[in-house]
Amino acid sequence: MQVTETLNEGLKRGYAMVITADELNSKVDEKLKEAQPEISLKGFRKGKVPMPMLKKQFGKNLMGEVMQETIDGAINSHFSDAGVRPAMQPNVQMTNQDWKEGDDVHIEFTYEALPEIPEVDLSKIKLNKMVVKADDAAVQEALANLASTAQSFKSRRKGSKARDGEQVVIDFVGKVDGEAFEGGSAEDYPLVLGSNSFIPGFEDQLVGVKAGDEKDVNVTFPAEYGAANLAGKDAVFTCTVKDVKEPVAAEIDDELATRFGAENLDGLKAQIAERLEAEYAGAARAVQKRELLDALDKLVKFDLPPTLVDTEAKQIAHQLWHEENPDHHGHDHDVIEPTAEHTSLAERRVRLGLLLADLGQKAEVE
């Protein structure tokens, strides 16, 4: 087997390889000899089929298998002998497409090598460790939020008009094309206006109603509504308002604490403080991690495999485009070309990814 270097520019490598016909034939013969004891053909006992006949019968099929194994083995040996790690799968092409049995096989393969990562003096990096305690104001705010979630409702005086955030108790019957539909009716239904628990437009039309009112609510079911028979259809809901109620926040006391699994109010405050400080610690770690990555990015520079950067830039562009266009799914759009900003971010990610992998390997982090 002959291997000749054809390209060595930066991290790009290229090689021409010749696998001789004798080498291929020898490996085919080895496989046939290995299988011979288990083969039987008409007119011959098991294990007694002559090699020439075996080669005629099975040689052509084995040749393709042997050729692929030999090419893969030669490329892997090249990486091992050269101490090189490819950034991605090498591009392998057979250059003598008119190959026939008895010919040598000519192969060209190209790849991008992973770069040598320089040593990093971590002592040059100084990080700030932030420790934040939960103060009384933050705990009180969290308590108030808990109390609001545990709120109840009480009836307002007769004649009061329902406001956003208040609860109306209603009977309703929904109809499409004048016909009632399954699941479209209810009695004594408590609906909080502004909760968006009904289809768009429904709750808005009940703002201002009073107990005793009857009101037709006209809405259109969303095109993507779960019930296919209603999707996109116009509907009329005839509503009878039975009560209008205002929210009443729960008292911040021991009773509230027990509702949230604490023994008393002091215990609930301690739980809240612990949770808040865990959140603060998580945020502090995120800031510290960003500071570390920024410092590493400035501290070390090395060549990057162009294909890795290009692939990462395309993924970034694709992800950001979908975040801005959530109604599109998969690849139901034109090709999204990365911008210079995407490429710059990709270079940072690839550089830091390779650096951290190298540091982890040297530190034997599993």
Key traits:
366 residues; Alpha-Beta Plaits; 4-stranded antiparallel β-sheet; 39% helix; elongated
Tell me what the structure shows.
The chain has 366 residues and is α+β, with helices and mostly antiparallel strands. The protein has three domains: 2-112, 2-Layer Sandwich (Alpha-Beta Plaits), CATH 3.30.70.1050; 152-248, Chitinase A, domain 3 (Roll); 300-366, no CATH class. Helices cover 39% and strands 21% of the residues. The strands form two sheets. Strands 5, 6, 7, 8 and 9 form a five-stranded antiparallel sheet that branches. The protein has a four-stranded antiparallel sheet with strand order 1-2-4-3. A hairpin with a 2-residue loop joins β1 (2-9) and β2 (12-19). The protein starts with a strand and ends with a helix. 14% of the residues are buried. The model has no long low-confidence stretch (mean pLDDT 91).
Radius of gyration: 36 Å
Q: Within the CATH hierarchy, at the fold level, what is the topology of the largest domain?
A: Alpha-Beta Plaits
Q: Main sheet?
A: 5 strands, antiparallel
What share of residues is helical? 25-40%
Mean pLDDT: 91
- Described by the principal axes of the CA atoms, the overall outline is elongated
In short:
This protein is an alpha+beta fold and 366 residues long.
Tell me the layout of helices and strands.
Layout: E1 2-9, E2 12-19, H1 21-35, H2 51-82, E3 91-94, E4 105-112, H3 136-149, E5 152-155, E6 167-176, E7 179-192, E8 214-220, E9 234-248, H4 254-259, H5 265-299, H6 306-324, H7 340-362
Antiparallel strand pairs: 1-2, 2-4, 3-4, 5-9, 6-7, 6-9, 8-9
Helix pairs in contact: 1-2, 3-5, 6-7
